[in-house]
Amino acid sequence: MRVNTNLFWILAVFMVLAATAYTVWSVIWYEGEVEWVGTVAISLTAILSGFLAFYLGKVHKAQGGELPEDRLDSNIDDGDPEMGFYSPWSWWPIVLAGGGALLVLGLAVGFWICFIAAAVTLVAIVGWVYEYYRGNFAR
């Protein structure tokens, strides 16, 4: 977490320098006028990076713990949390993606297709959630 904090502080300083350079360049290029959209966007990026660095620094001090990436004696498995179980043979994610594609198609072409997409999506979600309750892989 300490490395992340330092990286965000470096990014914040870089963005402040970039915003200053962009403002000076726009004043020179536009003959005395500031181009506000880029100046504000880069400045807000610097502020966001500073906020993230400050937050991560406070969390690091409050928790007092080190991430596995920060320790020299850690193993690769120390930073590998349990992410859950996913079925490699499941067809339900493809059906769910088809339902999402139908929804976008319905918004673009005709709203009546959204009702079909809602039904397909609902069936896909129920099928995906309950796929281990029936058939060969029931628990």
Could you characterize the architecture of this molecule?
- The protein has about 140 residues and is mainly α.
- The protein has 2 domains: about 1-70; about 90-135.
- The protein has 4 helices and no strands.
- It has helices spanning about 1-30, 35-65, 90-110, 110-130.
- The radius of gyration is 25 Å and the shape is flat.
- The two termini are about 40 Å apart.
Strand and helix layout:
Layout: H1 2-29, H2 36-63, H3 92-108, H4 112-129
Beta content comes to under 5%
The dominant shape is flat
Helix content: 55-70%
| Tally of separate domains | 2
Rg on CA atoms, Å: 25 Å
Main sheet properties: none
Which residues form runs of ≥5 with pLDDT under 50? none
Work out the helix count: 4
First and last CA, distance:
40 Å
Structural class: mainly alpha
Number of strands: 0
Mean pLDDT across all residues, rounded?
A: 89
Listing every helix as H and every strand as E from the N terminus to the C terminus, the arrangement reads HHHH
Identify the notable features of this structure and list them briefly:
139 residues, mainly alpha, 4 helices
Quick overview:
Helices cover 65% and strands 0% of the residues. It contains 4 helices and no strands. Helix 1 packs antiparallel against helix 2 (36-63) and helix 3 (92-108) runs antiparallel to helix 4.
